[in-house]
Design a protein that fits this description.
Structural class: mainly alpha
């Protein structure tokens, strides 16, 4: 955004459009490429305003995303998720069209290298976008009433549930009582066979895997 303004804005876009139009024989005349050249040549100021508006819209979305991640407010991530997805789709189309346009003017080896490098760069950007989507889903889970009822309302310091591997038994005044409590915590859990009745519930997947889950002795076995 700053670089485009420093280069001259609308006059720079018009100069570049005239340059590409004068050397059109070096490029593959794709319809969208021709449309952009015509747009930048005839309406450079309007094109500059549109580009600046898009970039100006993207910057507040990034700031809102960072604030949402810091304060754990998932709805602040929504503008960035939507705008970034549109931007990535636009970059993908631009990369594909750009490779089609310049395939006549460069070596095939360079064309393959540019295509692969651009594809991996887009893959990295899509991965970073997917990380924000995953953060949105995680914040939705940790803010749910079910999660808060078990682990508390602070996702950064969840309440340790009794029986979990990280649970530490409380210190008691009587050593004999403390030893008895520790032995009780380390008692092995016995496998409890579950009934193998035919399917009669609403979820066929759970009933089909009833035999598999009956081997486990934890309280969350189906």
């Amino acid at each position: 955004m700053i670089m485009l303004t420093a280069l001259g804005g609308g006059s720079f876009l018009r100069m570049e459009a005239l340059h590409y139009e004068a050397n059109m024989q070096l490029y593959n005349p794709h319809a969208i490429f021709i449309w952009f050249i015509r747009m930048f040549k005839t309406k450079p100021d309007l094109s500059f305003v549109i580009l600046m508006s898009i970039m100006g819209l993207y910057l507040p979305c990034c700031i809102a995303m960072m604030a949402g991640a810091f304060y754990m407010k998932r709805y602040l991530l929504v503008p960035f998720i939507i705008v970034e997805l549109v931007r990535l789709v636009t970059l993908t189309l631009t990369h594909v069209i750009g490779m089609i346009v310049i395939k006549k003017s460069i070596n095939v080896g360079y064309l393959i290298a540019l295509t692969i490098s651009g594809g991996f760069s887009l893959l990295l950007l899509f991965y970073l976008w997917a990380c924000v989507v995953a953060l949105f889903q995680v914040l939705k889970i940790v803010r749910s009433p079910e999660y808060i009822a078990v682990f508390g309302d602070n996702p950064l310091a969840p309440v340790v549930v009794e029986g979990s591997p990280t649970f530490k038994p409380p210190l008691l005044d009587n050593p004999a009582t403390q030893l008895q409590y520790t032995r009780k915590e380390h008692q092995p859990k016995l496998a409890i066979p579950l009934p193998m009745a035919p399917f009669n519930g609403a979820n066929m997947l759970l009933d089909d895997f009833r035999a598999l889950h009956s081997r486990y002795s934890y309280s969350w076995a189906i």
